[in-house]
Every structure is written in C-alpha cells, then in structure tokens.
Design a protein that fits this description.
By secondary structure, this protein is of the alpha/beta class. The protein has 15 helices and 21 strands. Helix 13 packs antiparallel against helix 15. The longest helix has 22 residues.
Length: 455
C-alpha cells in the first residue's frame, strides 16, 4: 500500500521524469554538467531581467543581459546578495508574474542567527523532492523502509502531540520520530529502548544530537541497534563526531548540507569522500575575501544561485557558511562537484544541570516561531551558567522600545526557553546595535560557557 501511494504521489507531482533525469545526470561528464548549469543559469538570469525589478537595475549596471543574450563572463561582477538585502528589497526581488505561479513562503530562523523569509516556486519544490529521492538511493533507502528521525518538534514540546496529518504521514512513510528537543538523560535512555524495539533500517538526525546521543550511549555502557545508515543534517559534522557516531551505531554516516531557504545543496555518497553538490539544482561558488574563486583545498565563503526558483530568484546568495572544494574527484564516478567540507556552520549545544542537552536548532526554531515577524535583524543566545541565558537582539527598527511593544513575544520566548532549560533559569534580553563575528570571521548564533556536566 505504501509503495502504491508513493508511486501515485510521484506521478501526480510530476516527480518521475525529474528523478529519471537526475539519476542520469549524476553520471554525466563534467563538461555536460557545466553546460547544463550554464543553460539553467542563463534561463534564470533572463527571467530575472524581465520580471524582477531588483535585478533589472543590477544587470544594467554590470552589462550582464542584452535582450535574450547573457554575458556569463560578467556574472562574477554581480554584487552578492545577503539576508539584509533580501529583507530590504523583498518586494523588488519577487517576480512580477507571481500571480501566475504556484509558490509558498519558506521561513527560517537562520543558522547564522539572521531570520529570513523567502518565496519558493513550486517548480523548485518539485526538483527538491526529486533530488531527495536520489540522495535516498545513495543511502540504499527504499520508500517504506523503517526510518527513525532524531529531530526537533515544537508541537510535541509545546502541545504534547502532533497534528493527525503529521502522524498519518509518519505512518505512511514508516517513520518513528524522537524529539531532539527533549534530550535529557532519562529521555535518551527511553530513546535507546525505542531504537532497539523499532530496529529502524535508517536513522536521520541533527549532527550535534546524534553526537550527544552517541556520547551518552557510550558513557552509560548501553548498546543500540545498528541501522544500515545514519544521516547527519543541520550542522557541521566534525571528524570526531563522525567517529563517535559510527562507533556507537556500527555503521557509516552520510553527511548532508542544506538549509530552509535553499534546501538539499550537497550530500555524501557511499564512498564517503566528501559531499556532492546538487549541481543540476544549484550553482555553487566558493570565494576568497577579494571575490575571486577559491582553489581546491582552500577555504572560502559559500555563495549559491538556486535554479528553478523563478518566483523569487536568489542570485549569488551569501548563505553565511564557509567551505572547501575537494582536491580529488570522488572515486564513486559521479561528476557533480565535490566539497571536502562545510566548515562555517559551527553551533554549540546548551547543557542543563541534570545532564540534559539542548541542541542549538531549538533556538533557531524558537526565533522562527515566536519572534520572526520582521522586527529583528539578528539574534544570539548565550548561556553563561545553568541558570542564566542572555538573548542579544539587533532590532530592524529603532524608533520604538521593543521591551514594551513586543513584551508578550519576549515573555513567550523566555517561557519556551525555560521549558527546556528549567523553571529556575533566568532569561534576560540585551538590545544591541551589532553582534560581531569572531576572530576567524565566523558568526555564532549560540554560545555556551558551560562545560558538559559529564565531561
């Protein structure tokens, strides 16, 4: 029944031809992939020149487009797009033919601590679903296989249960869900029992949560079921974290790189030599500080141009991460460009006195749910002790007193923080003009000065 429903769903959404195209393109020659990317980049630029006021002015200044002709050699002359620019020019970035398109909003708290709302074209959503099928194939995941997700759920935390539609979807996809926002030692013992009872073929989770869970299992002298694959997402997977997770679960970890506003940017194959960029779906640049292209093995800033998002093109978008191109091609034979690592998405967990671990993703979700209605520009959450949390906020508007105008939202945020940190925890706010990056140029949206209780 699951397989039948899945096949009908893919056919109805038009996913079958997209999946077939991607399945073939992964083995195309590097030259063929470059030609495909150039073709899709030109299509996107021509559309933006016709329908997006923001780009019409920009393209004229750099001489990128003349009618239907695109001078791609001028593409790198375009200034970069970032979150503040998107917020400031949101209406001018939208395509003027939006009414004729199917689209949805995508809202994110942002792994760089900068909330953002963008528009996703239904056509891009279709390709994103298709590329996820390809990634599943790399992990040997077949639809209907038993899966377990160590993932965040605000609804479960705030209301005690998920909507019936969500529960049905989990039944249909044969997925068990463990809330990563409830990782106390007692809960993690329950999670070990659940995994050993369900015996999932595949496990997916936040990188830091998988690591903290594995550390707990090892320290407690427990054993846990070994799945066929473990998929790490939503955070940087360090070599130490990978080693610990693989030792506990007795299987290989497949790392992934994505975001709410772009999604499914890169994924690790079974060779485990790096992350393949989803080349048919995104133009991927790694730049030096002077804007020139970084060489293989050289760290630089990641800049992205997703294809198919004609509703709101994001051209040369600074996502806020640093990355490194691999120096050698992947032995698997796939031609999609290979990342050696994504090194800029550095996050830190918060710790409770009882040994509970709160992943940084919890605070990203909180900002998206509670505060993200346009009045803040940046945020940073700092843990000074088990009982003291400071939230720094850069306001987008300066003509009002936020503690008065947004008192109820700030009280609600403090309440949600105390829900996971403990009622005795004090939450204070600091409204600042800027939140600086650290000495290496990285921005941390959570910083904890508390040592792990079991360290």
């Amino acid at each position: 029944m699951r397989q039948l429903i899945h096949r009908l769903y893919k056919a109805g959404k038009g996913l079958t031809p997209a999946i077939a195209a991607l399945r073939s393109q992964q083995w195309a020659s590097p030259e063929a992939i470059r030609e495909l990317q150039e073709h899709r980049l030109k299509q996107l630029v021509v559309h933006a020149a016709k329908y997006c006021p923001y780009y019409q002015d920009l393209f004229k200044r750099v001489g990128l487009v003349q009618g239907e002709t695109v001078a791609l050699e001028r593409f790198r002359d375009l200034p970069l797009l970032d979150k503040p620019l998107i917020r400031a020019h949101f209406d001018r970035l939208k395509s003027t033919d939006l009414e004729s398109r199917k689209w949805i909003f995508k809202t994110t708290g942002g792994s760089t601590g900068q909330p953002l709302k963008v528009i996703h074209d239904a056509e891009r959503t279709r390709w994103i679903e298709a590329i996820r099928d390809i990634h599943n194939e790399w992990c040997s995941i077949v639809f209907g296989d038993s899966k377990l997700r160590l993932w965040g759920s605000e609804r479960d935390l705030f209301f005690g249960k998920e909507p019936s539609k969500v529960r049905f979807n989990r039944y249909l996809t044969n997925t068990t869900w463990l809330n990563a926002f409830r990782m106390t030692p007692e809960r993690m013992r329950e999670y070990v029992d659940t995994i050993n009872r369900v015996r999932p073929l595949h496990i997916k989770g936040y990188a830091h949560c998988l690591f903290e869970f594995s550390t707990f299992v090892k320290a407690a002298g427990l054993s846990v079921h070994a799945p066929r694959s473990v998929i790490s997402a939503a955070g940087t997977l360090t070599p130490l974290m990978r080693k610990e997770i693989e030792a506990v679960f007795q299987t290989k970890v497949f790392d992934s790189y994505g975001s709410r506003e772009i999604q499914a940017m890169a994924f690790e194959c079974s060779a485990h030599q790096g992350l393949h960029v989803s080349a048919p779906l995104v133009y991927f640049e790694i730049l030096r500080p002077d804007g020139s292209a970084a060489d293989s093995g050289e760290i630089g800033e990641i800049v992205l141009t997703p294809f198919f998002n004609y509703a709101m093109p994001l051209i040369r978008y600074r996502i806020g991460d640093m990355g490194v191109w691999a120096e050698n091609p992947c032995p698997c034979g796939r031609s999609w460009p290979l990342l050696a690592e994504v090194s800029g998405r550095v996050t830190e967990c918060f710790y409770r006195r009882d040994g509970g671990v709160i992943p940084p993703e919890y605070f990203i979700h909180l900002v998206g749910v509670v505060l993200n209605d346009g009045w803040i520009e940046k945020f940073q959450v700092l843990q000074y002790s088990f009982d003291l949390i400071i939230v720094k906020i850069v306001c987008q508007l300066s003509e009002f007193e936020p503690t008065i105008r947004y008192k109820s939202q700030l009280e609600k945020l403090a309440e949600k923080i105390k829900l996971v940190m403990g009622k005795e925890c004090k939450v204070s706010y600091e409204f600042v003009e800027e939140i600086p990056v650290n000495a290496s140029g990285k921005y941390f949206y959570t910083i904890s000065q508390v040592d792990r209780p079991n360290a």
